[in-house]
Structures are given as structure tokens and as C-alpha cells.
Design goal:
The protein has seven helices and four strands. It is of the alpha+beta class. A hairpin with a 2-residue loop joins strand 1 and strand 2.
């Protein structure tokens, strides 16, 4: 029998009936004291300390207009998107002329008026595409690969394109080809209907007569 335990209680009954209830009571007292202490501490803290200030978003800097910004805007023009792969090494010369024809079609649709696309020379068409039109729309920026140093529309070899214009829907586009000599056998010509001329069909007798009249 354990020392100090009454003779009528076994050690097991002693711990169950006396020690365990006392331990639980002590634990409850400690918990109650801790709750009272923390409650008083929160009540005594200033109200400002309890409310966390909202985080303010960092101000977004708005760029001011500049010549660089205008150039970036022009670079993202519709014409530049259509001619994005113009004169690219991985693209064919035929695809270049297809893209140019597509650009002219879209320009005529965007710019309103009786004559949105000048039915004239390369210089007149290029000037209209660069911004001298009824809407002052910069359809192709001046630094685009399709624009030469003299402001004309050029092919991938740097030669000015030749436009045979009958109407806004009938425009033939001709490239001088790798030899950079117009009206030679290596020229490439896209007709208004999307077909291409090659070989002897490039320089029919009627075309030679028209060239002399120009």
C-alpha cells in the first residue's frame, strides 16, 4: 500500500478519486486566469493599434507623349502588322507582293472618301500610306522595310515597285527581281486577281509599248 494513502483506498482509487480531480481543477484555474489576463490586455490597447491600415497600391506612372511614343504607335499600325514578314528571308518574293496587295486593299477600306487610294505612281501611293490621306492615318511607318530611302515602296532587293493601276480593285504590282532591272525576264508581277506572271508572259508586246509611252 502507498505511503499516506488511507487503508480503505487502493492506490488506483486514490489517484482516480482525489489526484485527478485536483489536477483538473488546477488546470481550469490556470486557464481562467490566462483568459482574464489576455482580455484585459486587449481592452487596454489603443484602438488604432487594432486596425491595420490598408495597403495603398503604388501609383502607376503614365508616360508623357514623346516622339518615341509616336514612333512606337506608328510601328504598331495596321499596315505594319500586315507587312510584318515583308522581305523576310524565310518568306518568298511572291508572298511579299501578296502582302503588299493585302495592305493596299485594307488601306482603301479604312480611309474613307471617293478616292482613298491614289490611282497614280509609286510615290503617290507611298505618300498616302505614310500618312498624307483624308484621315491622316500612318498606315506604314517611314522606317518600315517596305519604304525606301526616297520614300517609295520597294521590293526585297531595294528597287521601287511598279504599280499598274486601273481601279482600286485592279492593281498589278511588279518587282524588278534580283537583277534590280525593271522589264527584264526575272521580274515578278502579281496581277490584281492574285495570279502571277512569269517568263515570256512578263513582257508582252503591249507592255513594251506602254513602257515607251511612260
Amino acid at each position: 500500500m502507498a505511503r499516506g494513502v488511507p487503508p480503505s483506498l487502493s492506490p488506483f482509487r486514490f489517484y482516480v478519486t482525489i489526484v485527478t480531480p485536483l489536477a483538473l481543477c488546477a488546470l481550469l484555474v490556470i486557464l481562467l486566469i490566462w483568459r482574464i489576463f489576455t482580455a484585459e490586455k486587449v481592452a487596454n490597447e489603443p484602438e488604432e493599434a487594432l486596425v491595420q491600415p490598408e495597403e495603398k497600391a503604388a501609383p502607376v506612372a503614365v508616360p508623357s507623349p514623346s516622339s518615341r511614343g509616336m514612333a512606337d504607335h506608328a510601328a504598331k499600325s495596321i499596315g505594319a502588322v500586315i507587312l510584318e514578314r515583308y522581305a523576310h528571308p524565310e518568306q518568298s518574293p511572291q508572298a511579299d507582293l501578296q502582302d503588299m496587295a493585302h495592305a493596299l486593299e485594307n488601306f482603301a477600306l479604312l480611309v474613307k472618301g471617293d478616292n482613298p487610294l491614289p490611282l497614280g505612281s509609286n510615290q503617290e501611293i507611298a505618300t498616302a500610306l505614310r500618312g498624307r490621306n483624308a484621315m491622316n492615318l500612318i498606315f506604314i511607318p517611314l522606317d518600315h522595310p517596305a519604304i525606301g530611302v526616297d520614300g517609295q515602296l520597294i521590293d526585297r532587293w531595294g528597287s521601287p515597285l511598279f504599280f499598274h493601276v486601273e481601279s482600286r480593285d485592279h492593281i498589278d504590282i511588279r518587282s524588278a527581281g534580283p537583277d534590280k532591272v525593271m522589264w527584264s525576264d526575272d521580274d515578278l508581277q502579281r496581277r490584281y486577281d492574285g495570279s502571277f506572271l512569269a517568263g515570256k508572259d512578263l513582257n508582252p508586246a503591249s507592255l513594251h509599248v506602254e513602257r515607251k509611252l511612260r
